[in-house]
Write a structure and sequence with these properties.
It is a single chain. The protein is α/β, with parallel strands linked by helices. The protein has one domain: Rossmann fold. Helices cover 33% and strands 27% of the residues. An eight-stranded mixed sheet has the order 1-2-4-3-7-8-11-12, sandwiched between helices. A hairpin with a 2-residue loop joins β5 and β6. α1 runs parallel beside α8. The chain is globular and about 45 Å long. The two termini are 19 Å apart.
Length: 257
C-alpha cells in the first residue's frame, strides 16, 4: 500500500445534535465493504486535521469505509473553543454510532489520545467488533494531575480558564470542568472489555509515553495486540499512513470485518 498523497473521495455530513439547531461535522470516506472504522480525536484538535484525513484515506484505500468527525464544542471567540470533555465526546460518539450503525455489519472504533477513552466507552455496542487505542490516555487520574501541573495556572476567582493549546489556526482553552470530568473515567476498568484491542504507541511520544501505553496493554483483557511506531514522537501526518496500514492489517488478520 503506497503513501496517500491527496484526499480521496469523502462526503461532508452535518449530523443534527442538540436542541438549538446545532450539528456535528462528519466526513464519510465510503467503501464497498460493510465494515466502518470510526475515528475519535483528542480534546484539543478536530477531525478535519490533515493527519486524520490521511488516516481515513489510508483505511479507505484498503477497502474499508471510514468516518471522522469533529466534536461539537462551545465557541468562546474567533477561532477559540473550549476543549471537549470526555463525557461530551462520548455523547456525540453515541449519536454518530447510532446514526451509522444500521448501514454496516461491523464497526471498529479507533480513538487517539482522549478519543481512546471515548472509544472504550462506546465499545459495548453490538456492532462494535474491535477497539484501537492510538497513543491513547491510559490513566485518567494521573493524566489530569500531570496536565494541571504542566499548565501551572491558578484560578483567579473570576474565570475557570486554566490555559490553552494551539492546533492549526484554532485555540483550545482548558477549563476546570475538563479536568473534573477527566478523572471520573476509570480507564483500567474499561480495559477489561473482552473485545479485541490494538494498542499503538509512539516510541518517542512525550505526551502519552510508550511505557504508559505498554502499561495499559498489560492491564487490558485479551485478545489484544501492541504496536510500537519506531521514532514516532506523536500521531502526526508523517505517521498516519503507517498507523492506517497497521489498523487495516489488524482488522484483516483478526477477521473483524
Amino acid at each position: 500500500m503506497g503513501v496517500v498523497l491527496s484526499s480521496m473521495a469523502s462526503e461532508h455530513l452535518a449530523i443534527p445534535y442538540g436542541r438549538g439547531g446545532g450539528h456535528i461535522d462528519a466526513w464519510l470516506h465510503p467503501a464497498v465493504s460493510r465494515t466502518l472504522v470510526l475515528l475519535l480525536h483528542g480534546h484539543n484538535t478536530t477531525g478535519d486535521r490533515p493527519r486524520f484525513v490521511t488516516l481515513a484515506d489510508t483505511i479507505q484505500q484498503a477497502g474499508f469505509a471510514c468516518l471522522r468527525f469533529s466534536v461539537y464544542r462551545k465557541k468562546l471567540g474567533e477561532n477559540e473553543y473550549e476543549v471537549s470533555t470526555v463525557s461530551e465526546e462520548v455523547r456525540q460518539a453515541h449519536v454518530i454510532l447510532e446514526h451509522f450503525a444500521p448501514e454496516y455489519d461491523a464497526i471498529i472504533v479507533a480513538g487517539h489520545s482522549q478519543g481512546g477513552i471515548a472509544a472504550l466507552a462506546i465499545a459495548e455496542h453490538l456492532k462494535v467488533r474491535g477497539i484501537v487505542q492510538i497513543m491513547a490516555v491510559a490513566d485518567t487520574n494521573d493524566n489530569a494531575k500531570g496536565k494541571l501541573e504542566k499548565i501551572g495556572a491558578q484560578l483567579d476567582g473570576k474565570t475557570d480558564r486554566l490555559g490553552s493549546m494551539q492546533d492549526g489556526t484554532s485555540t483550545f482553552v482548558y477549563t476546570k470542568a475538563f479536568f473534573d470530568d477527566l478523572v471520573i473515567w476509570d480507564v483500567p476498568r474499561m480495559l477489561q472489555s473482552t473485545k479485541p484491542k490494538l494498542f499503538i504507541a509512539g516510541e518517542q511520544d512525550e505526551s502519552i509515553t510508550q511505557p504508559e501505553v505498554e502499561h495499559a496493554y498489560a492491564t487490558a483483557q485479551p485478545p489484544k495486540e501492541l504496536l510500537i511506531v519506531n521514532d514516532a514522537h506523536r500521531f502526526s501526518l508523517s505517521t498516519a499512513v503507517h498507523i492506517g496500514e497497521s489498523i487495516v492489517a489488524w482488522i484483516t488478520s483478526n477477521n473483524l470485518c
